[in-house]
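Justification of computing resources. Each target in the renewal requires a structure prediction run like the one illustrated here; the chain below, 474 residues long, is used simply to show the kind of job we budget for.
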Amino acid sequence: MAYIQLEPLNEGFLSRISDLLLCRWTCRHCCQKCYESSCCQSSEDEVEILGPFPAQTPPWLMASRSSDKDGDSVHTATEVPLTPRTNSPDRRCSSSDTSKSTYSLTRRISSLESRRPSSPLIDIKPIEFGVLSAKKEPIQPSVLRRTYTPDDYFRKFEPQLYSLDSNSDDVDFLTDEEILSKYQLGMLHFSTQYDLLHNHLTVRVIEARDLPPPISHDGSRQDMAHSNPYVKICLLPDQKNSKQTGVKRKTQKPVFEERYTFEIPFLEAQRRTLLLTVVDFDKFSRHCVIGKVSVPLCEVDLVKGGHWWKALVPSSQNEVELGELLLSLNYLPSAGRLNVDVIRAKQLLQTDVSQGSDPFVKIQLVHGLKLVKTKKTSFLRGTIDPFYNESFSFKVPQEELENASLVFTVFGHNMKSSNDFIGRIVIGQYSSGPSESNHWRRMLNTHRTAVEQWHSLRSRAECDRVSPASLEVT
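Resulting structure tokens:
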């Protein structure tokens, strides 16, 4: 009887072969060795971990190898030897060695197949970020919301912005007849034309009609006397460089026929708005604004020119400004002298109906609450834009400078009666406003240097209310 002899295998070589074979994953459904388990589909609950060859021998394989040495010696008859067989008579080996090698390899494979752990499940849980604490708290941002009652909601509205009687109504959609019937302030006739050769804009104020009669001081009734109207012209947004017509006495249909020129480039003129304000002259109180007309110059043909009748609309400015005064202050510590320069004034309130005003400036030095010195400029006839360029010097020691105040009062000269008050400001310890305080502070910080600044004139009552120094002068 012939026996098939197997080739003797080296123990190290068998170990490497087993490692190579066992590196393949085994599909636990059909017990076939493959890389991707393509022979069957995995369920949704369990996911087979597949992948490349591991870089190192798995721990469960190392544990199985160590258990082989002390394992059980009982084997089943179904084990099939995996070693190759050959009938070559030249290769001979003892039957005991061959059986031992085949038995060892088969036993390892069967033992590992039974001990191989099942495929792990991937359990994906949401990741929570936050500070570790004994009690978990949600980190979602909370939205702060305030419950509004109907009263709180409607309290935010400003009724005057939606009132039909507001002076800020949009009159662009109303005709002149509708504006005239609504406000009954009269109409104004004027014209404009731009001179490209000389680069100036000419505004001609022609006449007005149907002006309302003046309002009495108490506001309860209208006086039967006629108005004394005049017109102020400016190009917005510049209200400082304005022009003013003469006053027409006791008439509701004044005829002006006056021309005024504004030196301004053509492109700049197209960006301006022509504002014409009709004012009622009052010798004994503040002048009252009757109405206004505003025309954006971009909407008219300036080169061709034209003239219009426009209905007057109410103005938010019920009283005209009193004018402006340009002053220069300079203090010399070594000499103890306070030098004051009255340079000029512009757009002063007109105090005389026939010939404008004859303005002059009175300068009074007040130390504490005591009047120390009074000086005044000369008066200029028939103008509301006077140029003075007059200088005055007051003796003020440096230790008394902080308690000094200068009161500037502009009057209209009157030969027949007392001078007409136009406006006042106070500069110094008891300044009449922020602009005046800023001018005095700049002068104190820059000795021996003249500091110039424009100031808007204020009423006597306003100065008396905020400055004690104004109460000490007349």
